[in-house]
Design a protein that fits this description.
This is dTDP-4-dehydrorhamnose reductase. Helices cover 42% and strands 17% of the residues. With 296 residues, it is α/β, with parallel strands linked by helices. The protein contains nine helices and 13 strands. A six-stranded parallel β-sheet has the order 2-1-3-4-5-10, with helices on both faces. The chain has a three-stranded mixed β-sheet with strand order 11-8-13. Strands 6-9 form a two-stranded parallel ribbon. The chain is globular. It has a domain of 185 residues: NAD(P)-binding Rossmann-like Domain (Rossmann fold, 3-Layer(aba) Sandwich), CATH 3.40.50.
Length: 296
């Protein structure tokens, strides 16, 4: 199976590359940009095109969000003309106001923000115009490298002693980019074998949590890892923010359908964070650090 991945520097693109390198049944072609012409698509001739998500579209400049939507729609046209499957990954922030209960796939986002509404229109066009699509809605991604990786910047800030601010009244499911990459390749392998299960799917980590609690847990695990290595590092503190004064906003994706259809189990974010911290410490050993925590 050959996959064409857009946005080479994205943390999900890098995770897909790592996963493909461990397998003999998947070939990746990675484009640096999010733009894709019909000519380029025909020359590569992949089985599917994967577009990584805008991780935090609510916090981005509207022009950047609009440009992403335009690029996705151009990719849709190219995929239609070549009869190539399209996989578009989307942030859970499209559910701007959240829901009191876990959100099922059939619930189409209805945000108030104009930029998010533009992304929803793109999704509606994909569903209406092209059967061979997967729209995969994701929780907040975390990884150790690449753009939108979140965890790498968080670790760097804490180790440098900088305080980190995080909302305590927004509840979501942090999602490992590595787990998403593994799931996407597995889903597409099943599709290539005739599963014919196109449509929208939710893919997120287990255990809903606030950004503040997630960040605090990362700090705790980081402290434990460093102490176990004999390092004395004064970590930055985690400060709570409140955006919603009346009630907590919940963006919890119900991922039952991806389990029922593809057998994909969600990975607990605590285990994924622990695994990534092990890898982070190994890299730290290889680089070498002095007693202050600085690279030597």
């Amino acid at each position: 199976m050959k996959l064409l991945i857009l946005d080479a520097g994205h943390c999900l693109s890098l995770a897909l590359a790592r996963e493909a390198n461990r397998r003999s049944d998947t070939e990746l072609v990675i484009e640096h940009e999010t733009q894709l012409t019909a000519e380029r698509l025909q020359s590569v001739s992949p089985d599917a095109v994967i577009i990584p998500p805008l991780a935090h579209p609510l916090n981005m400049a509207p022009a950047a969000v609009m440009a992403h939507a335009d690029a996705v729609e151009a990719c849709l046209v190219a995929c239609q003309s070549a009869d190539i499957a399209l996989v578009w990954c989307v942030s859970d922030q499209l559910y701007e106001d959240g829901f009191d209960v876990p959100i099922d796939e059939h619930v189409v986002p209805a945000p108030r923000d104009d930029s998010l509404r533009r992304l929803v229109r793109t999704g509606n066009r994909i569903r209406a115009d092209y059967d061979r699509h997967l729209i995969v809605r994701l929780g907040p991604l975390f990884a150790l490298e690449g753009s939108h990786a979140w965890l790498n910047e968080l670790l760097d800030s804490l180790v440098m002693g900088e305080n980190v601010r995080a909302a305590e009244d927004v509840i979501f499911c942090p999602t490992s980019a590595d787990a998403v990459a593994l799931s996407l390749i597995g889903m597409l392998q099943q599709q290539s074998c005739g599963a014919d299960a196109w449509g929208a799917y939710h893919l997120a980590g287990t255990e809903p949590v606030s950004a503040f609690t997630f960040t605090s847990m990362v700090r705790t695990q980081l402290s434990t890892h460093l102490e176990g290595r004999g390092e004395q590092v004064t970590l930055g503190e985690v400060q709570a923010l409140k955006h919603h004064h009346d009630a907590k906003l919940r963006r919890v994706l119900n991922c039952r359908r991806v389990l029922d259809v593809f057998g994909v189990h969600q990975k607990p974010w605590r285990l994924e964070v622990g695994r990534m911290l092990d890898a982070w410490c190994l890299t730290r050993d290889q680089q070498g650090v002095d007693d202050t925590g600085a690279t030597s």
